[in-house]
Amino acid sequence: MTGLRTCTPRIAWIACVLGVVALAMLATAALPSLASQQAGARAVHIRIAAVEPNIRNYDPHKGFSGLEHRVLYAVFDQLVRFDRAGNFVPGLAESWEWSDPRTLVLNLRRGVKFHDGTPFNAEAVVFNFRRIMNPEEQSIVRGEWTGVESVEATGEHRVRITLRVASAAFLAALTDRSGMIVSPTAVRQMGEEFGHRPVGAGPFVLQTWVPGSHVTLVRNPDYWEKEFPKADRLTIYQFKADEPAVRGLKSGGVDFMQGVPSKDVAWVKASRGFDFVDRPTVSSLVMSYNLTKAPVDDVHFRRAIQAAIDRRAILNVVYGGIGQLSASMLPKGFWSVDPVMLAPAYDPARAKHHLSQSKYRGEKLSLVVSPDDRIVKSAQMIQQFLGDVGIPAEITPLPGPEQLARFFTGREFQGRIGGWSGRSDPHLNYFAVIGCGGSFNVPRPRGYCDPRIEELLQQGSASQDREVRKKAYSALDLYLNDQAMFLTLLHESWAVATRKSLTGFVPYLFGKPIYKEFGLR
Amino acid sequence: MVLVTLAAFMLVTLLPGDAVSALLAAAEGADPRIEESLRLQFGLDRPFAVRYAQWLARLAVGDLGRSLLSRQPVLDTILARLPVTIILTAGAILLSLVIGIPLGLLAGVRPNSPADRLLSGLAALGVATPSFWLGILLVFVFAQSLGWLPSFGYRSLPEGGLSEMLRHMLLPWLTLSAARIVEVVRQVRSGTAEIMTQDFIRTARAKGLPDRLVLWRHALKNVLVPVITVTGLAVGHLLSGAVVVEVIFLLPGMGTLVVEGVLQRDFPITQGVVLAGATATIAASLVADVLYGLLDPRVRYD
């Protein structure tokens, strides 16, 4: 041991200790961990790569982004769920009945507890509903509740909701944020901290959330559906961009990734460990406007934009052809979409004709864009298409919170190019984006209100008969396309890379993974 | 230190876009009255000097305020993130010394030998390599192609034990320390080359001491003084480098915290992290000064 003999006092001694420590570190680092492998055999741990920049909180009533839903579904249970065909099925509400077209009675599931031990009952549900309806709480989904006259507990496990106007689609709201029930005890105790330490009654308990890094979910041992969750532990790594997430996938550090960029699809398909799943979703890339501002308040100008954009080219170039073009806000194959309806065609000559009929005088169109790789590239192509017909456009990438502050309030920009993650029911989609008082209708809080749209929305939501509803939504699609009020550029594919040993992943049209079903073979 | 607090405070308050509008926009139907009351609550209505003074007064009792988003105390948030950043930077310093000193000695003992030329060439390359690029390259080789190490993520000791933690930290350490290793090699090389020509080394050799002992016992001690200087000064660089490395490797430290803070306009968080970083930098140069005294009897502080 000559190395140790040279360990003479002071410096050399320090250097030697450092050296030994470092060697020990390297040695242990190079060895695979036996202990963790053995633990892995018992507990099912699933690792997910998610490109989720800028998640602000996990409070279902107060969030903003559709990307939050993946975790929200895991931590909170909804009152009503939808099955693969989009039918309503029981969740925390065991059953429900319309005692008249304006009165909905929910019968709640018994014996359910929130993660903090608070019993789930009518009192808790009413607390949730009142929280959403209270203007001071500023809930993101308050718009869905403006038609509600009253809510009350009529028994330990029974809640009655009275609507001002009959709306069968109200039930749809209870499958989404509005139906996710938070623990009243936790909300009272934590106040505004709740969004960072959410407590629900869902299949997973949120153990840690380190913003900008990861979310750890662990099994809720008391979950009422005994066969779920399949996994004991789920780590969701929240990447800021596609590239590092793909590196995580390629290094085998994750088991599941949604939204694989098109250039990496070939790798996934060729890999021995992963399968690639290309199935349509309701999630889309959209161009929306502040319809109260010139020049986009002019229908001729909007028609010019609609005809100037080659959507097929965007799908092929930016998304590698993975995704679909639909004539509706919802994808082809969704029950409300008329399969024979024609999508707006790309026709630059026609665009110039529309432009000549408009009041437009060549001023710059200013658009806000979500700072996602693919969305920015798509926006750059749109900028090019608009320039070709004589509309100079300026695009400004801004993260969600800034978009809210500067675009959705109506302060700046005439339009937005960004994602719309989609909802389970057509009403929730159309209402949020173009309905009077919808959360994403600009300028907030009321947005742009159009009587024809309101009439069709009312027709679509009044009945529970799908054929009746479908007729209303098809008419709405036709109207929106004719008025060019809202441009659905394309619908995204799941574009999922899933480890071959991962079970339980179902590519629902809804496009948001249900983590409780995930397991490992 | 006063300048540091002023800079930290100004840096954030002068940023465009304020937290109230960002916060409120998230809620539907922002009521102007609510906006006003929030501004009052955050004290945004008062003049800059007053806000700065109040912030300093709270700082003096260890109150860094609360995050605008999570509503948790900034100090708690920073303390929760601190261990990761300490492990990252301390590991990088250790690695730079453990790798850099022997290589520097090797190059410096025989200047212009093939080994020296090779190392100097590599050092030049190392200086020119940006850390984010190196990080991606290391991930490509060790995680993607060879599959030896994970490409991202962090395991604390209780979560995965020592070996899991080290496996996750190795690539971040290498990425962060690369530029430091080069720095240490260059310092040790030039120091050794100079010292080896001096009289006391010749005397030691003349006494018949073996080369190894001359090097480790007599030369190294003198060479280490400038190494400690650069290492002390490097803490600032390391902390800023840690921001990049933490984002690349998705480590839940102060780097990812400050990036979130800036993106989300959460100014108490940003201020807190900037302040903590600056304090650590100053503390590091203090530690370096104390170490001189231990190593070099000629340095005495009266």
The gross shape of chain B turns out to be globular
Strand % of chain A is 15-25%
Q: How many β-strand stretches of chain A?
A: 20
Q: How does the major sheet of chain B shape up?
A: none
In which range does the helix fraction of chain A lie? 25-40%
**H and E string of chain B:** HHHHHHHHHHHH
- Helix count of chain A equals 17
Structural class of chain A: alpha+beta
Structure description:
The complex is a heterodimer of chains A (521) and B (302). In chain A, a hairpin with a 2-residue loop joins β6 (148-155) and β7 (158-163). Helices cover 33% and strands 21% of the residues of chain A. Chain A has helices at residues 2-5, 11-30, 34-42, 69-75, 122-133, 170-173, 184-190, 242-250, 265-270, 299-308, 311-319, 348-357, 373-388, 400-408, 426-434, 451-462, 466-483, and strands at residues 45-51, 80-82, 88-90, 93-100, 103-108, 148-155, 158-163, 204-210, 214-219, 233-239, 256-257, 274-277, 280-289, 365-369, 393-397, 415-420, 486-493, 496-499, 502-503, 519-520. Chain A is an alpha+beta fold. The radius of gyration of chain A is 26 Å and the shape is globular. In chain A, the strands form 5 sheets. In chain A, strands 8-9-10-1-11-18-12 form a 7-stranded mixed sheet. A 5-stranded mixed sheet of chain A has the order 15-14-16-13-17. In chain B, 77% of the residues lie in helices and 0% in strands. Chain B is built from 12 helices and no strands. In chain B, α5 runs parallel beside α8 (157-195), α6 crosses α8 (157-195) and α8 crosses α10 (211-249). The longest helix of chain B has 39 residues, at 157-195. Chain B starts with a helix and ends in a 7-residue tail after the last helix. The interface between A and B is large, with 68 and 66 residues.
